[in-house]
Amino acid sequence: MSSEKIWLALVGIRPLSxxxxxxxxxxxxxxxxxxxxxxxxxxxxxFNFEYHNFKVFDIDDIETEETLIIHNDENAExxxxxxxxxxxxxxxWGTFHTFDNEDAS
Length: 105
Prior knowledge:
The chain is α+β, with helices and mostly antiparallel strands. It has one domain. It has helices at residues 38-51, 73-86, and strands at residues 5-15, 26-35, 54-64, 91-93, 97-99. Strands 1, 2, 3, 4 and 5 form a five-stranded antiparallel sheet that branches. The termini are far apart. The relative contact order is 0.29.
């Protein structure tokens, strides 16, 4: 039996050259994926964003499905991401909350 859990985090990203997703300075986005540990999770999310021409500059609010406490609409998005992983997706990301200020981080 696999020891993987569903991990979630809020990730700060900036577009790299060749990025076709948006032209803003950056964005924050909730993500989820299966991983055996927190370090495996952060490695997978960094790889996924780099593959799509993003640089990760911040990873915050790391938690597992078991530790998630539902108390606002942001967590409703996290529940949707968990559902996508349970449906077989390898990686799920939520709404990109973009910003235009280069100094934002």
